[in-house]
Amino acid sequence: MTADTYVGAIDQGTTGTRFMVFDHAGQVVANAYEKHEQIYPEPGWVEHDPMEIWENTKEVVQRGLSQSDLDAEQLAALGITNQRETTIVWDAETGKPVHNALVWQDRRTTDRVEEIQDEGKVEWIREKTGLECDAYFSATKTEWILDNAEPLKMDASRGEDVRDRAENGELLMGTIDTWMIYNLTGNHITDVSNASRTMLYNVRELEWDDELLKEFNVPKSMVPEVRPSSDENLYGHTDADGFLGAEVPVAGALGDQQAAMFGQTCFDAGDAKNTYGTGSFYLMNTGNEAVESDHGLLTTIGFQMSGEPVQYALEGAIFITGAAIEWLEDVDLINNAAQTAELASSVDSTDGVYMVPAFTGLGAPHWDGRARGTIVGMTRGTRKEHIVRATLESIAYQTRDVAEAMEADSGVETTTLRVDGGAVKNSFLCQLQADIIGTDIARPEVDETTALGSAYAAGLAVGYWDTVDELRDNWQIDQEFEPEMSADEADKLYSRWDDAVEKSLDWAQEE
Q1: Has 256 been labeled as part of a binding site?
Q2: For residue 191, which of 45, 222, 345, 438 sits 20 to 30 Å off, Cα-Cα?
Q3: pTM to 2 decimals?
Q4: Annotated binding residue 85
Q5: For residue 240, what is the DSSP state?
Q6: Among candidates 78, 76, 97, 83, which has minimal Cα distance to 19?
Q7: Cβ of 6: how many Cβ atoms within 10 Å?
Q8: Residue 340 annotated in ligand binding
Q9: Is residue 40 annotated as involved in ligand binding?
Q10: Is 152 helix (H, G, I), strand (E, B) or coil?
Q11: What does residue 78 show for φ and ψ, rounded to 5 degrees?
Q12: How far, in whole angstroms, is CA 255 from its chain's centroid?
């Protein structure tokens, strides 16, 4: 490894695509970003154009390199991280998608999910995949595309529909990482963390599940080869004659939340991180054991290093955290997110006000799609400062809900929670989080932990970094927040949170 080599990371997210380059110390040396179009054909339907995403990827990689005066030859490896569950089906020969990508947020297959629930197959699916049966995952999305994509004109003349072509081995499917690897290298590959989000992969047997493929009518010829997240055998190389003009090894891939966990160096059982974005994703490494959840969490694959066993994780998905702060802005209670800390700290408490931000139902550990946003405990003396503070407290309470579920399922007590994402720039929230959970909160210096995680996975695979200990040394704390509130006081505040949640449950009744 020479001083002028780096590792690149393609971070393909829900709203846009980012390319970052990191040096050996894990510091950012290049960064470029491009948004893509959100397509809403009908209410509850969300699509992306896979070709637009691929064009944007080439654009940000080239821009990121040129703006930093780097040459593609200086990249020791490329890693990929991606919005999980989002699903693409494409033609194996031409590489052209047969339909837009169905995004993880897309709810068009809800009826199919309810059919499976009525057939009593939810537990059967959970045992194999570790997942709740939900339209969120890739299985029903793939099935929908095969049943509903318009036949391509050249095939219509042959009288072949999309499903016939899939049965004949002419079509491939994959999540966005697979689409990226295919376009970069020509190989049809995914990693274990992304495979575990499809609802077609058996997380205990570590293979595509024939019974699930049959249940969702997905031919086995369509699914990608599953590899470690950090793969010494490499997924392939970019084409020297392609857009980069160099043969760069593509050697690592992780779903975005698992990548954040890897970037936060949560390599040991009991290590936990929480990413505060639109919603929040709390993941705890459970080591080589796939821990079953009795408390509404998902059992998922965290990552796998070359030649090593899979490391599993428990995941708690909280639907609305950062979006609750956006809502405060929408209703003119604040001018911008930065103002929340100042307003919330101007009062000593919420004066008994609780806000439950169940705008799209509640995720883990409640899983109530009919819950709705609720503010309780207001009096004539309630001011906007109290509501703003109650909103920040709701983020901390929801995280404690998941943290307690994690501890109950895993039997492991969290000593330090590593945090990342936009909302953690708010020090008031970080302190509040430490107080409510009663756990130290560690905020790292590099907050782009998702891209960093995929760079680490790729760099380890090619020997750019030798051991995970080097990565642990890179991890620098920006600030640590220790609990200042007494446990009794935190418990008292939290006990009323449960009462407030009760008021929000099962609110949206169909007409």
Answers
A1: yes
A2: 45
A3: 0.87
A4: yes
A5: T
A6: 78
A7: 22
A8: no
A9: no
A10: coil
A11: -120, 135
A12: 6
